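REQUEST ID: PR-0412
SUBMITTED BY: lab tech R.K.
PRIORITY: routine
TASK: structure prediction, single protein chain
INPUT:
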Amino acid sequence: MEYIQGLTAQTQIFLYSLGFGFLLGILYDVFRTLRTVISNSRGFVLFMDLLYFAVCAFLIFCFNMVVAGGQIRIYIALGELLGWLIYYFSFGAIAIKACNAVSAFVKRFFGIIFKPVKMIIRKIGQKTRRFANFNKKIIRKNDKKAKYILQKYKGIVYNLIGYTENIVLKNRRNR
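STATUS: complete
OUTPUT:
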């Protein structure tokens, strides 16, 4: 391993880093396609972006270990950034259109496949909603009856004080 690299070795590593940045751009479009197919919610976009950055950090670390022997050089980082930007502004525009087409196709495909399942789940939901509303009415009615019955009888636990006072008053009157 040589500690001082010559100009040809640096140029070769820079070109490798350009290609590696280009590959990271392709990986970004893969993540973008997955993100648009699965969900566009803010939380999921944040999760996918953080996952992309973590994967890129690991891959860049491995790239530096293999190509540059673990040495951190600014021209390697600039080459990766430049390669990523070249991909993003050239082939990335085409990839966005392909990503949108793939996303629309996948959503349509799964929409057709899961349409019967959705209908079945909707029917089950309607039946359980009706059953739950019916049970809610019965529970409210029984709750009112239970409160009335509990207040009617004075010997119940929470009315025990009133019950004992009434017995004492009855006993005093009967004397």
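NOTES: Helices lie at 7-38, 42-67, 74-89, 91-152, 160-174.
REVIEWED BY: pending
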